[in-house]
Amino acid sequence: MTSVDYQRIYDVVKRIPEGRVATYGQVALLAGLPGQARRIGYALHALPDESPVPWHRVINAKGEISILPDPFFGDVQRMLLESEGVIPDSNGKYALSRYQWKPEHR
DNA sequence: GCAGTGACTAGTA
DNA sequence: ATACTAGCCACTG
Question: CB of residue A62 closer than 7 A to nucleic acid strand B?
């Protein structure tokens, strides 16, 4: 069932600006769940399609889409990122040094 | 309740 | 550079 932590994860993901990406570990850390990157995957997988959460802006630490085994969502994610100006390298990997979101501390 | 699995990561070889 | 391991914890059978 939907846990409160999930809502917290979604809130963090919603803060990722357009044209930027964040890693699972980074989201986990910002959501107050350090070292629990796997939970981010669960939360996003359980996310309904109509959700305002930009789940496609979350990628793994290697700068790749972690859902590649799933041809459908993997393709959807890559398409959504491309529509925001996030283009992968020739390797098919995203340059984190260039696209990774750096949250402003306030 | 235990064992396996997973949209992960960091470390080691 | 790739491959394997351990750690993390919720979900499933």
Answer: yes
List the A69 CA – B5 C1' distance (angstroms): 15
Judge if pTM exceeds 0.90: yes
Proximity of residue A96 CB to strand C below 7 A: no
Residue partners of A50: CB distance under 8 A and separation at least 6: none
Domain A3-99 has CATH 1.10.150.290: no
Strand B nucleotides, any atom under 7 Å from protein beta carbons: they are 6-10
Query: CA A4 → C1' B8, Å?
Result: 20
How far is CA A23 from each of CA A1, A13, A19, A70, A100, rounded to the nearest angstrom?
A: 24, 10, 14, 19, 8
For tokens 């917290």, the residue is A8
Q: Where do the structural domains in chain A lie, given as residue ranges?
A: 3-99
For residue A71, the model assigns a pLDDT of 82
